[in-house]
Design brief:
By secondary structure, the protein is of the alpha+beta class. The protein has three domains: 79 residues, Immunoglobulins (Immunoglobulin-like, Sandwich), CATH 2.60.40; 237 residues, 3-Layer(aba) Sandwich (Rossmann fold); 92 residues, Sandwich (Immunoglobulin-like). Helix content is 21%, strand content 31%. It has nine helices and 24 strands. The strands form five sheets. Strands 2, 4, 5, 7, 8, 9, 10, 11, 12, 13 and 14 form an eleven-stranded mixed sheet that branches. Helix 8 links the parallel strand 13 and strand 14. Helix 2 packs across helix 9. The radius of gyration is 24 Å and the shape is elongated. It starts with a strand and ends with a strand.
């Protein structure tokens, strides 16, 4: 290293720091040098002990005006200009969160709002302020989500985008977690080095432990061949990133993959990815599910209209992090009771009344032999309880377990009932 210190890539002009959490300044350095940081009228000094440094400054609440800060050693000085303190969101995932705004239906979306983007896959790493010259290159989901949040919070919004259209769930995993799990290791050992896409290491190098408000993860379209390990992988990612960011309650918002008639996958494996995503979600553990199952496109894995998904995500974030709104989680299976010729199903997470949009209660099926599934006709709903008249030989009930499912049951505020299977 020729210079005395080198800030991590996350530090560039226009950076957004997370309000209400300690400010962390970090990077590479020479050993045994003195570093001084001048930050909003306060001065902080350290002497480095090894080749990396981290200085933790006190938390600062949101501020409306921009500022600069300076870091210097005896032979070097660097100033970062036009900084903000607001809310920072990390988006990670695959093809549908990677899709830029310019590829969707968004010709008139630009607004003058204080929105800044940092991309982990850029050729030159810097924070960019959204304006008419560059906003269309930003993630469509992230940009539209930010508009919804900013319209309510009026805070400066920082988006860190670390995505790849070819990513797999393993792309976001710490290599030690992969190696310590025999089943996961056997799967990943089959990949060539070019197919591994080690995006976790990119995050670790460039942005961690810059404080954030939450993580949004939209991953799963490529993961159907190993649906059986998806749930465990997702749990390991959440655990690892919480440790990395030193926040064991860091909120996660998991977007359930959209409906699409995937030609290379079967109904069961795709459905089990969605069920795994739902099983990881837990309000008490600050992991929340946002469903896109009903807003996909049957023959296009890249649905162009992300407005409704971005609004659902924003509504859920506003409810859980800002305490604005309620009942923004999709209804999901909670429990069932078997009677002689009837099964009742109780729903959790959204306690508004359920309605069948068609009036015919479509999307339910059952099997007597575990292989062949037939449509269920005798389904009724009272408030948020589902009642199914069923032959005693039935072995399993399923709802919306298709690659591109029939989504017919919704809460009264328009959120789809999540897919489920019940073994009897």
């Amino acid at each position: 290293m020729k210079s005395n210190f080198e800030l991590a890539d996350i530090f560039s002009d226009n950076i957004v720091f997370q309000a209400g959490l300690p400010i962390k300044i970090f990077g590479k350095c020479k050993k045994n040098i003195e570093i001084q940081i001048d930050f909003l009228g306060q001065q902080f000094n350290i002497k480095t002990k090894d080749e990396r440094f981290l200085v933790e400054l006190p938390a600062i609440e949101e501020r409306k005006s921009s500022f600069s800060f300076t870091i210097k050693s005896k032979k070097q000085e660097q100033t970062i200009y036009n900084c903000q303190i607001g809310d920072v969101y990390l988006f990670i995932g695959g093809m549908n969160v990677s899709m830029p705004l310019e590829e969707g239906f968004y010709n008139q979306e630009y607004d003058m709002l204080d929105l800044r983007f940092f991309s982990c896959d850029a050729s030159s790493y810097s924070w960019k302020i959204a304006d008419k010259t560059n906003y269309t290159s930003f993630s469509a989901v992230a940009y539209l989500f930010s508009k919804n949040i900013h319209n309510i919070s009026q805070s400066a919004i920082g988006i860190i985008n670390c995505t790849s259209p070819n990513s797999r769930i393993f792309s976001w995993m710490n290599i030690s977690d992969i190696r310590s799990n025999k089943e996961i290791k056997q799967i990943t050992d089959k990949y060539s080095s070019s197919d591994r896409i080690p995006l976790y290491s990119v995050m670790k190098e460039k942005i961690i432990p810059h404080h954030i408000k939450s993580v949004i993860i939209y991953q799963g379209e490529n993961d159907y061949p190993y649906y059986n390990v998806f749930e465990n992988c997702l749990k390991l990612i959440i655990k690892c990133l919480r440790l990395d960011f030193n926040c064991l309650t860091l909120p996660f918002f998991v977007i359930q993959i959209a409906g699409y008639n995937h030609p290379d996958a079967d109904d069961f494996s795709v459905s089990m990815i969605r069920i795994a995503q739902a099983k990881v979600a837990s309000v008490k553990d600050s992991v929340y599910l946002v469903s896109a199952i009903d807003i996909g496109s049957e023959n296009d894995i890249f649905p162009k209209d992300k407005h409704l998904l971005a609004k659902r995500l924003a509504d859920t974030v506003l409810e859980k992090l800002y305490r604005i709104g309620k009942n923004n989680i999709s209804p999901s299976f909670f429990s069932h009771t078997v009677y002689p010729n009837k099964v009742t199903i109780l729903i959790k997470d959204n306690y508004l009344n359920l309605v069948s949009r068609s009036g015919q209660h479509l999307g339910f099926s059952y099997t007597e032999n575990g292989v062949d599934f037939k449509s269920l006709k005798s389904v009724s709903i009272a408030n948020n309880i589902i009642e199914i008249n069923l032959d005693k030989d039935a072995k399993e009930i399923r709802y919306a377990m298709k690659k591109y499912p029939t989504c017919d049951i919704f809460s009264s505020n328009g959120l789809p009932l999540l897919p489920f299977r019940v073994k009897l």
